[in-house]
Amino acid sequence: MKVLILYASIEGQALKVTRFLQKAVRRAGHTTKAVDVNVKRAEAPLDWADCLIIVASVHRRRHPVEFEKFLTVNRDALHRKKTLLLSLSLCAAFPQGQEEAQSYVAELSERTGFTPTADQLVAGALQFKKYKDYEAQVVRFVALNLNEYDEVHEDKEFTDWPAVEAGVLAFLER
């Protein structure tokens, strides 16, 4: 099977997930290509693929704007394919954040008119070394406020790699 991975990375975690998925998909015996759709007028070989895995991170309740534009412009072609959206967010790292993380997917569909065949919520990462002071404060006092995570001054990856791989491989087997 030919699997096209479309991704939009802001701080690098979605790119890291994409690279991980490329290896997992190849190990499972499939062919894969990856395209960064977080650039203006990105083009992707949609006709080449049998199915699509779409990976994007959420910041300030939204997936990247160029990513959303890509989905909007290509929604008819995307709807003709089997698609899995991996939505990366900090909310997905915590049980009490699952509902909010799922709302990001719903809002994405409302804004773009694209609804994936399936979606998977993926816990993102804290990357304090990349944050400006204001961003760090927002993460500390808003995103982590209700969660039992105290190490708010260090980088921390929450991504559950075995769960990501299992979800994608199950999607490909369907």
Overview features:
alpha/beta, 174 residues, two-stranded antiparallel sheet, Rossmann fold
Can you tell me about this structure?
It contains five helices and seven strands. By secondary structure, the protein is an alpha/beta fold. It has a single domain, classed as Rossmann fold (3-Layer(aba) Sandwich). The strands form two sheets. It has a five-stranded parallel beta sheet with strand order 2-1-3-4-5, sandwiched between helices. Helix 1 (13-27) crosses helix 5 (161-173). The longest helix has 15 residues, at 13-27.
Short description:
This protein has 174 residues and is α/β, with parallel strands linked by helices. It has helices spanning 13-27, 65-79, 98-112, 133-143, 161-173, and strands spanning 2-8, 31-36, 51-57, 82-89, 118-123, 125-126, 156-157. The protein has one domain (2-125, 159-173): 3-Layer(aba) Sandwich (Rossmann fold), CATH 3.40.50.360.
Annotate the secondary structure layout.
Blueprint lengths: L1 E7 L4 H15 L3 E6 L14 E7 L7 H15 L2 E8 L8 H15 L5 E6 L1 E2 L6 H11 L12 E2 L3 H13 L1
Parallel strand pairs: 1-2, 1-3, 3-4, 4-5
Antiparallel strand pairs: 6-7
Helix pairs in contact: 1-5
